[in-house]
Amino acid sequence: MNNSAELLKELRIDRTAPAAPGPTAPRRWLWWVLGLLLVLVLAIVAGIAFGRGKPIEVRTAPVVAIGQDSASASVLDASGYVVARRMATVSAKITGKVREVMIEEGMRVEEGQVMATLDPIDANAQRALNAAQLDAARSQVEGLQAQLRQAEADAQRLQQLVGRQLVSRSQYDQSVAQRDSLRAQLATARHNAKVAQDALAIADLGVDNNVVRAPFSGVVTAKAAQPGEIVSPLSAGGGFTRTGIGTIVDMDSLEIEVEVGEAYIGRVQPKMPVEAVLNAYPDWKIPAEVIAIIPTADRGKATVKVRVALKAKDARIVPEMGVRVSFLEKPVDGSEKKPEGVRVPAAAIVQRGQESVAFVVGGDDTVQAQALKTGIEMGKDRQVLSGLSAGQTVVVDPPATLKDGDKVALAGDAGR
């Protein structure tokens, strides 16, 4: 009975339970989505509206009067390399096997210092042979001298006996002939001794050629040979033969070689002041001076080579370093006419229609387009004859959309 009652209770409908969602629930979610989209569109429109008044980020540069700092004003910039006027790859005069190398890279050597030695076996043997030949020649001279003294004494005695008619005349003549023959033989022996002595001197040079010495004082920049290798000034033996022992550079002869375009070589003059900056030390400005302009051009590159002397000697300056040079204007004295106009970065001048224009930044951070009359190029700058005055500020690399009256801010300051 109890089980039946429980089953009947389960079959009853509970009218107090909440009603199932009706067809209006999806519409509520749709209204929520539409509302969010409307808020997003309004935010985008507001951002665009407010963004129109945001200042344009730009870079600026001052307008400088030409001649205001004539000692450091650059009329031309170029790049080149540090080179040594006195540099040599030292080699032996003969072909031989290296016995000892006495240099290392970075080592300083003095003039005449031994850098390496070759195996002197052949040279020593040749010298010993020449020394023996000289000794033999000298011994022959001494023997002939003794025979000649005897022959001269015999001839003198026979001459006295012939006067007394104690010996025949023919005997005396034979003695005189023997004496003269010994004199001739002695002269030849002495000549042979001199030749042997000269041959020994040549052999001494051959021995000395096995010693490689520094031709001048300098610093070793390369070590090219090792003990046991064959060296030859003529590279005999193909790729297995070295042609040098090492390379030395006279650091006092360092200078700069610059190639200047033909179109700008007229701005460079001998004795012109130069400011050099090594690529390795960009904050170090080295005073320099133009030595000479090489009177020939490279037709392939359309450049002219210029030699520049370094006025500072420093261990940091080494050959083959890259260097940037600025050819400076010579100081203007009272008798010379001062240059006209001002100078601005060439990147600040743009074309607007048919005019060259620069954008001048005003006191309220608005720009004004100013038409210019330009002059010559001055390295990375440009001469402006009219349209700008010293002390003004111009926009560098102005955007194509920049126009007269726009608000600007220095790059990095607009966000703040």
What's this model, at a glance?
This protein is an alpha+beta fold and 416 residues long.
Helix content: 25-40%
Query: Pairing-aware structural class of the strands and helices?
Result: alpha+beta
Strand order within the widest beta sheet: 2-18-22-21-20-19
Number of DSSP helices? Answer: 4
What is the domain tally? 4
- Please count the beta strands (DSSP E, at least 2 residues each): 24
Biggest sheet character = 6 strands, antiparallel
CATH 2nd-level architecture of the largest domain: Beta Barrel
Strand content: 25-35%
CATH superfamily of the largest domain: Efflux pump adaptor protein, beta barrel domain
Which CATH class of the largest domain applies here?
Answer: Mainly Beta
Order of helices and strands: HHEEEEEEEHHEEEEEEEEEEEEEEEEE
Poorly predicted runs are 332-336, 412-416
Arithmetic mean of pLDDT: 82
Shape: elongated
How far apart are the termini? Answer: 86 Å
CATH topology term of the largest domain:
Elongation Factor Tu (Ef-tu), domain 3
Rg result: 49 Å
Family: Belongs to the membrane fusion protein (MFP) (TC 8.A.1) family.
Keywords: Coiled coil, Membrane, Transmembrane, Transmembrane helix, Transport
Domain Multidrug resistance protein MdtA-like C-terminal permuted SH3: 343-397
GO molecular function: efflux transmembrane transporter activity
